Amino acid sequence: RAVPTARRPVVKFCHKQSGLAGDISVDNRLALLNTRFLQLCAEADERVRPLVYAVRLWAKQQGLAGNPSGGGPLLNNYALTLLVLFFLQTRSPPVLPTVAQLRDLAGDEDRAVVGGWDCSFPRDAAALEPSANAESLCSLLAEFFHVFGDFDFAGQVISLREGRALPLPPPAAPEAGEGLKLGPLNLQDPFELSHNVAANVNERTAACFGRCCRAAAKYCRSLQYRRKSSKGRAWGLARLFQPGAVEPGAGNAGAFLISIPLDAAGGSQRLRPEPGSRGPWFWEACAAIAFVLRDVLKCSCAAGKLPAAPSEESELPVGSEPPAGADAE
């Protein structure tokens, strides 16, 4: 399917056998150099790749990230990756060099100008000095949430070229034919300086991203993040990466999402146990409901006797009273 109105015209396709989707574009050299730049950053420090994956998974579980071609005002994976790289540039000492520093390190064979934009940087990570930063991966993840929880996205421009936030309006790039499109979240492409990578993000999504970062930062300071639960509850990174998993009572209550495994096609039929047994969907639903009662509503739940499995002829009546022994105060 051709999309000629896209910023970079593409042909979208889907591989039927695997279900994998992809895009085909022609003569998009900037995209190739952006990919090589991301690869260089990943090879420069072993913490880069897992930190990017962690943030992208967290954002997906919070409903903040999506496919940029889907039309929704969500952060795309490229924008999230650049946010992580910018954060690593601003650590003390920095984990990654700025794009301007990379340009100075580029050799003659690394020089590239595409569309008037200087895209010069070393192709080999061996040309970079190892970072003196010794922060752990978990510490970096927690700091990422802390930094962007109170970040003024609308009032400044995130610049990977300079490795710092630029005031508005940003200085005009001599190569730019048009100015940077400003919005609620301003994230400048590392090479094409007139391109705001997060231009599709609206005010609501930008605010939600900040609230979720604040909630995650608060959770990362809690004992539940650092210490294994004595009650068998999810803790540490596992809880952070659950859908909508923020610390109860922290951040935006509207972003707290609990998935209960009810299939739209099968409905309660999928939960109805087989004679003499209960399927995995039944126990998943019970666990989800127990989580809502215990962790969200702060009820005191006591385990009781399990109700007898219904016979083939019986059904679970709608609106029936809870079985005896299944108490929730």
TrEMBL record:
* Keywords, alphabetical: Magnesium, Metal-binding, Transferase
Q: Name one Pfam family in it.
A: MTPAP-like_central
Positions of region (Disordered): 307-329
Name the coenzymes or cofactors required: Mg(2+); Mn(2+)
**Gene Ontology MF, one:** metal ion binding
The domain of life for this entry's organism is Eukaryota
- Poly(A) RNA polymerase mitochondrial-like central palm domain boundaries: 3-40
Q: Name one GO cellular component term.
A: nuclear speck
Keyword Magnesium attached: yes
CDD domains documented for this protein: NT_PAP_TUTase (cd05402)
SUPFAM superfamilies in the record: Nucleotidyltransferase (SSF81301), PAP/OAS1 substrate-binding domain (SSF81631)
Entry keyword annotation includes Coiled coil: no
State the PANTHER family in the record: POLY A POLYMERASE CID PAP -RELATED, SPECKLE TARGETED PIP5K1A-REGULATED POLY(A) POLYMERASE
Q: What is this protein called?
A: STPAP polymerase
Underlying gene: Tut1
